[in-house]
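Recall the central idea of this unit: under ordinary conditions, the amino acid sequence of a chain determines the structure it adopts. In this exercise we apply that idea directly, starting from the sequence alone.
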Amino acid sequence: WRLKLACPRSARLWTSHCSLLYNMCQQRPSALRREERGHAALGEGGAASNAGAAAASKDPPRRKWSSGAEFTIACIGYAVGLGNFWRFPALCFNNGGGAFLVPYTLTLLLIGMPIFLLELGMGQKFQIGGAELWKRVHPSLGGLGVASITATAIVAVYYNVVVCWALWYFFRSFAWDGVLPWAESRGGALQFWEVDTLHCRPAQNLSSAAPETCAWGAGTTWPQEPGIARPGPLVWPLVGCLALGWVLVWLCVCKGVHSAGKVAWFTALFPYAVLLALLVRGLSLPGAHVGLKWYLTPSFDKLAEPQVWVAAASQIFYSTGIGWGTLPAFASYNRHDHNFVRDAWLVPVINCGTSFLAGLVVFSVLGDMSQETGVPIDEMQIEGSGLAFVVYPQAIAKLPVAPLFALLFFTMLLCLGLDSEFSMVETILTAVDDAGVGQNYPRAVKAAAACLAMFGVGLLFVTRGGLHWLELVDGYAANLTLFIVGGVECLAVGWVYGADRFAADTLEMAKAKLPKALLWNYKLVVPALLAVLTVQAFVSTATSKVHFPPYAVALGWCLALASALPIPLLAIRPLCCPLPYASEGLTSPRERAGLVGKLAASLHRLSRSLSFGASSRGASSAPAPSGLPPELSTERADVELAAAREVR
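Accordingly, the structure predicted from this sequence is:
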């Protein structure tokens, strides 16, 4: 308005520059456009706020959690998943019992909680999801977000298959005659799992060529049917359960964090009620002490094996959810002053405490089974799906009022699985929104498209050979990528963004001062530890005795590289294409060169001349336009200067 009164020609020049900038902003991510339109609204209207500018634009303002407690509950629901119930007890079983708690706790304190704090802080500071967050820090770090989203998408496809299995068992738990279909009198839990659920082998092995079990061993001959190369036909009951699982996920994410936050109150808290009920029942069993003694007795000789430390670190990444891009996406919906430091230690502690309680539940039941059958615990099948869908259902079938306990148990599995699943899908949709894809479509349509696409890919896992595909993808998809992502994130914050700058941001947002030791932990300790763990994980995976055919192993390594390669590839790209204004968050080489550089420089010079002229004449010397108080004139010049600096 000063230019319009003093020099109409300069006003037209300013308007022309703003028009060019606005046109280029149309090609930028939606979150960045909203920020720049907010600056434009401040420069033109004075009292207009960022929320008002966003409401006036085509893009809606960024959604927010209804409360800080809703965000905390959503993080707990995301972190506490199926891995707490079957993966953690199995790792304890295979890695020294109580001795496994030593590397698990140390990894949590040195790696898990620091990275958890880092991801929450960066997401809340930049108010954008993980896919675009690291590109804002530096263009060479854009591969971090791509790697995280790729790993999340791969895991989300097969993770919902486990929810599908839980749905199938939930429906079959309605046994009106009081006898569960997997009771010993009806063939047992193993036969119900492999014959009636997966259909991976016939009920009776009438020929010698028919396998006695779906598990693959060292003597397996290839090709095997059903298997990797010949997965066989679809299992239609599981196809229906998988479709229902994706419908439930869509209902949770169709309205963004508003619907996800409300669902999280039930899916995150209900499993604890069931877990406590099962714990009380398990501890009251006659042979519970046998399993608890096995669970809590440490075998310290296992600590000398590097694989135990790799397993502990892998479980920390899987259980706390770090490295997947979900935590920055969730934190981007926080208020700017939310105390994320409290959540950074509260959620991991609750998550790891839940894993310990789940171990008590599982091993108390296993101890009673061992005492009743005479089979030692170390000879039982304690591994992943076998634990959740064979061993524990077999124990439930022997309890009084077995159908009731079965309904409670599989409802708990459903809540644990759905909570983590819709969190991963919400991460993918947040990346889509931040990239500006499908802006003309409502959130429900984009969520439906994503769920339908992942349902189509997931049909491979509900064939007769789907279990083997799931084991292959689960074994190779994300382990190495998570270690690499975590280490590069710490290097990015410690050295590129600046550890002191991150500490200042934390003090500003959460009113908490980070200790110097934690900042050096980001710079040196965590990257060094994760580098060693990455090398060891690579060696262990490459030299392990797998029972997959060679072409399946090659496919597994391709999956691992698909999620890890974006990190080095996108780091090299800015070196090949020099970007003079890389720090401003522009997204294409054309935007970073030529016209944008000249435009940013001219805007900066014009704003400096305006602010210098205003300060030399005095704020009261120029008349204020109608509707703008005179005392805001100096503040307006400051805002214009800050906006120009932000653009540059």
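DSSP finds 27 helices and no strands in the chain.
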